[in-house]
Amino acid sequence: MEQKITRQQQNHSDIATRFLNFGCRVVLLGAISLLTVQVSTGQAFMTKNGHAEFKSRVPLHSFTGVSDDLVGAINLADSTIDFYIDLTTLKTGIGKRDKDMRITLETDEFPFAEFYGKMVTLFDPESEQSQDVQVAGVFTLHGVSKDISITATLEMRGDELHVSAFWKLNLRDYNIKPPRLLIIKVDEVQELSISGRLTSVSN
Amino acid sequence: MVVLVCLSSSVDAQIPRERANPGGPVFEVFWAPNIITTASVANVPKGNLNVTIMHVFGIATDGIKDLFGLDDPANIRIGFDYGVSDRVSIGFARSRFDKLFDFRFKANLLRQTRDGRIPLEVAIKGDMGIRTDEIEFDLKDRPNYLGAVLIGRKFSDVVSLQIVPMFSHFNTVFIEIGENEEVIKEENDHLALGIGGRFVLSTRIAVLFEYIPVFGSRSDGTRDEMGIALNLETGGHVFQLFLKTSTWLTEQHAISRNRDRFLAGDFRFGFTVNRVFSLASN
């Protein structure tokens, strides 16, 4: 009888120990998770109203298309950079030209221009100096994806991460036939630039 | 661990791609601010200047002797409309006949949305014309007016339709004695319903029609305005080639002074060139 009682006590003791161990693990896991979340969200930045611009040239003339609907995120924890824009939000100042642009880019079928990639050189978020970083990734336009590498400028300003970048693309590379304005042909090479003030996603 | 994996994957994942403004206004219910004579619900975008050159010749069915109306006196109208906002435009124009200056505005009260939340475009238009020809009229006798409500809908990328209840008023009208000694009396006021539509044939070509029946009392001998047009769009231009009954190029004149019948072959050839300029700094 005594032996039985002892075994039962021992069993209770094992269960308590196992329960405590499990509890500790859960608490530890939770703490690690929370820390991870804090670190991740603290290093992730996002904007939904970044600025995007393209410049087109035709003989004796050039025009610019702009949008303030650039959506983008930068995660310093894993160096990922993700930007996209709804191409129908680009405005050139003339409604008819916007329509031509939508037709040329076939925005009903391919509504977005997007970039997804990583920073391949280091960025120091502790510094408030403007820093050039090399970014490599995939740029997709008109349903065609191309590997590109560009230089972006990043700068921490308080809680905000400011980003800007400039590059050129050839419309032919993305199966886009340069539009003609009567007999005038739009240059195949387009100058693109983006800029944005990204705020911490924890905000 | 599942929690961590979920968190990690959510951070690594791409942002879900979403259209910027799915409930925004539909694109181009009509290509130009006018159908033929009547205004369309399409307005001039903010900061844009739409320059319009309209030309309508004589009766085309008189044959080769006057080169299908091209030898007859043509009415010409040059107009300028500026987009104060994407919903409001103001403009003025000058027509050859009556040396008419007219000043107008158009305001879109409702914009049809792409998500169908608002199914119609609704706009109002006002136009005040003043004849400046050499006629013994006091200033108060010279004005004429138009008030219109434009109700349109883009049913698809191919079909757009609109109706336009409109009211016109002339401060001074004429009573004439006709060739058979009959009295021809003009009315000061006319009530009409513009009916118009567009059928898109390709990204650059569309066919349009308009018909403007008058209701109630009307000037003696006048007929309902009617016309068909071919629209050709090339970048910043919209060229409109049309056949229409009236030689007049403003709605108030077309509904109160047209004496020709389209279906009897009394139509005229004409064209309109719309050219858009941007006056806004980009």
Task: Write a brief caption for the model.
Chain A has 203 residues and is α+β, with helices and mostly antiparallel strands. Chain A has 2 domains: 1-42; 44-200, Lipocalin. Chain A is built from 2 helices and 10 strands; from the N terminus they run αβββαβββββββ.
How does this structure look, described?
- The complex is a heterodimer of chains A (203) and B (282).
- Chain A is α+β, with helices and mostly antiparallel strands and 203 residues long.
- Chain A folds into 2 domains: 42 residues; 157 residues, Lipocalin, CATH 2.40.128.
- In chain A, the strands form 2 sheets. In chain A, strands 1-2-3-4-5-6-7-10 form an 8-stranded antiparallel beta barrel.
- The radius of gyration of chain A is 26 Å and the shape is elongated.
- Chain B is mostly beta strands.
- Chain B has one domain: monomeric porin ompg (Porin).
- Chain B is built from 2 helices and 15 strands.
- In chain B, the strands form 2 sheets. Chain B has a 12-stranded antiparallel β-barrel with strand order 1-2-3-4-5-6-7-10-11-13-14-15. A two-stranded antiparallel sheet of chain B has the order 8-9.
- Chain B is globular and about 85 Å long.
- Chains A and B meet through helix 1, strand 2, strand 3, helix 2 and strand 4 of A and helix 1 and strand 15 of B.
What low-confidence regions of chain A span 5 or more consecutive residues with pLDDT below 50? Answer: 1-8, 28-41
Q: Percent of residues of chain A in helical segments?
A: 25-40%
- Highest CATH level, the class of the largest domain in chain A: Mainly Beta
Q: Looking at the structure, what is the overall shape of chain A? A: elongated
Number of strands of chain B: 15
Overall number of structural domains of chain A:
2
Order of neighbouring strands in the sheet with most strands of chain A: 1-2-3-4-5-6-7-10
Give the number of domains of chain B: 1
User: Helical segment tally of chain A?
Assistant: 2
H/E series of chain B: HEEEEEEEEEEEEEEHE
Characterize the main sheet of chain B: 12 strands, antiparallel, barrel
